[in-house]
């Protein structure tokens, strides 16, 4: 679990570290770094992993040209930190730069919910701890219902975007809704080209109005089944306590390129 105590630890620790200027990027992307076991760095491997998970939990997505990463900003807004490892548990280097160093259009997905929820503390371990059997069943249903391509999907309570991990939905056709910034950050780490994120609790008013081919609610918030069906022109798949249900949608979709399915 990662909590605000871990955040406080990093924000107090970072200023006391000896940061090395990255000479290789002196002209193109000036920044500093600390790396395990070099230049007297006092951080243990566990400290690097802890810091990486703090950044992933409390940071925000931003762009470095075409690359999307998660960046944590200091309390005074002057510094930012980021890591490059795909696996947080392998982190042995942390980068630092001033926040005025910005490269390329800043069109990264928005994950800011403006609130703290219990799920934030679990986000960095969520994928590892989850029972994947339900997700495998879900993937089989999606392959069966949409054999010709990736459906335009609304995932309510999307968490870290596990349906994307199975390759049955493309990030470019996926909209995820969740009330946990940290969960959405972890989704962006894995799938930076996600079509859209809605950082909010379930609410009829915040959901995109056009119907989707597929609406998912996998162990997500309690939602009136009719509300989900009215947002789907194809199918609704829900899972609760491991039980998966598949029902047809009720919306009529006249857009070109609509996936055609019949109950």
Automatic annotation (TrEMBL):
GO terms for biological process: methylation. Its EC number is 2.1.1.222, 2.1.1.64. Gene3D superfamilies: Vaccinia Virus protein VP39 (3.40.50.150). GO terms for molecular function: 2-polyprenyl-6-hydroxyphenol methylase activity; 3-demethylubiquinol 3-O-methyltransferase activity. The keyword Lipid metabolism does not apply. The keyword Methyltransferase applies. InterPro entries: SAM-dependent_MTases_sf (IPR029063). Keywords: Methyltransferase, Transferase. This is Class I SAM-dependent methyltransferase.
């Amino acid at each position: 679990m990662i909590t605000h105590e871990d955040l406080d630890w990093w924000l107090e620790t970072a200023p006391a570290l000896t940061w090395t200027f990255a000479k290789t990027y002196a002209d193109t992307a000036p920044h500093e770094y600390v790396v395990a076991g070099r230049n007297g760095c006092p951080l243990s491997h566990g400290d690097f992993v802890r810091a990486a998970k703090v950044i992933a939990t409390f940071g925000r997505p931003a762009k470095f040209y075409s690359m999307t990463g998660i960046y944590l900003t200091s309390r005074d807004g002057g510094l930012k930190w980021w890591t490059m490892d795909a696996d947080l548990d392998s982190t042995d280097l942390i980068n630092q730069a001033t926040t005025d160093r910005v490269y390329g259009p800043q069109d990264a997905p928005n994950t800011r919910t403006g609130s703290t929820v219990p799920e934030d503390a679990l986000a960095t371990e969520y994928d590892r701890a989850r029972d994947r059997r339900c997700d495998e069943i879900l993937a089989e249903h999606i392959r069966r219902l949409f054999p010709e391509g990736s459906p335009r999907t609304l995932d309510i309570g999307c968490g870290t975007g596990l349906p994307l991990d199975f390759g049955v939905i493309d990030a470019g056709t996926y909209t995820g809704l969740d009330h946990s910034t940290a969960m959405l950050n972890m989704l962006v780490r894995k799938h930076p080209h996600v079509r859209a994120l809605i950082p909010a609790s379930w609410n009829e008013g915040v959901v995109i109005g056009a119907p989707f081919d597929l609406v998912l609610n996998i162990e997500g918030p309690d939602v009136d089944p009719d509300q989900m069906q009215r947002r789907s022109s194809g199918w609704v798949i829900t899972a609760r306590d491991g039980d998966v249900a598949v029902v047809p949608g009720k919306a009529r979709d006249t857009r070109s390129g609509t996936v055609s399915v019949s109950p």
